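It would be a great kindness if you could assist me with a short task in structural biology. The full record is reproduced below for your convenience:
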Amino acid sequence: MTASLRERWTSGRSLRFRVTALVLLVVALALVVIGVAVDLSLDAQLRRDQQSRLDDRAARAGLLVASGTTGASLVDAVDGQGIRAVLLDASGRRVVGPTDDPGLPGRPPRDGHGPPGRASRDLARVVGVPDGTRLVLTVEPGENVAVLARLRVVMIGVGALGLGAVAVALLAVVRVALRPLDDMTVLANDIAAGDRGRRLHPERTDTELGRTAAAFDGMLDALETAQLRAEDAAAEARSSEARTRRFLSDAAHELRTPVTGVQTLAESLVRHPDADLARRERIATTLVRETRRAGALVADMLELARIEDGAPLDRREVDLAELAAAEAERTRLLAPALTVLVAGPPTRVLGDPSRIAQVLANLLENARRHGPADGTVRLEVGTDGAQAVLDVVDEGPGIPAADRERVFDRLVRLDDARTRDAGGAGLGLPIARALARAHGGDLRVVENEPGARLRLTLPAAR
């Protein structure tokens, strides 16, 4: 039953209406309680006043009786001003006094005001007279009723006016107090329309609505953060899928030539089982070379994929100049006719020594392939602010300005620089740049004449 009443009360009614109605109901109940209390208090006070006047009039009557006043003179002397006097004989019959019965002791008054018994006895006084008669003093019937009736009319009028004033004040106060809720509604509609950067920013958070507004802002921040994370995750998933597809496409494209070569050589061995030994040896040698080429290609592509997916780095402080010198010595052993020079002071960087060495090896291999066999390759180590810098300079044909970014795309070969047979698979520079960026640095081609200059930058150790 209570739940049903609550449901009917809240159904279809706004919070502003419910708050105003409840407060008005409480105020009305308070006014009723106050009115009843005032009515009862005034009634009691009027009765006390009547009893006091009766006592005073009875004392006066006693003095008059003591002075010898009796009969009509006694009645006229004490009758009036809300007090009625009646002289009764020993049998209770009226001797002198008003003809209308004001209500004698032990009987209720005619107008029915006040309960019989003790209440009516409290509002009557009896004074004995020496001639055997009794003087009965009572209050005017209906005297208190008229006063209380006027008071009730005044209280009802004042209460109605007060309720009206309270209702008007409540509407204004509730409108101001619930304005944050209206702001939340407007904000929610704006966010639904696409303006997701708006917030309430309450001035005070130590109130109920302030805490609600702060919680609302926190919820929006959490939702926006979750949405950004979801969008980042979706973008990362799309990027990963694109890398996977590109890897498969590149692998299929690049493996087609060595696989076709292996297939052709294998078919030649099958079709000519009686070929001379020298030819069979040439075919087998070429078959091994093509197989190694395919294996190296697959290894490079897998390496690039691991780097792009965020392979872990064993970071530590290393000397970039020392790593450059070690890689230069290795290149001299692989190409004795090539001159490799290293210049620059010791430069500490924070990185994975093996990965940085791999970058340098790829850059030196690129320089060796592009330059003359008996040329010179220079490694220049230095610093630029908070970055360590290493330039690899060769004496080759250089890289045109239009191709200085394209050379870092996977499986790209510049037609005038090298052929497929003379060069690698086109993954050395992409792998080197990916490793440099994984360290927080970069690899790019800078202006240089003649030859090419590739600049590696890494964060310097602090």
Remarks:
- Residues 105-119, 416-423 have pLDDT under 50 and may be disordered.
- Residues 314-459 form a domain with the Heat Shock Protein 90 fold (CATH 3.30.565.10).
- The two ends are 76 Å apart (CA to CA).
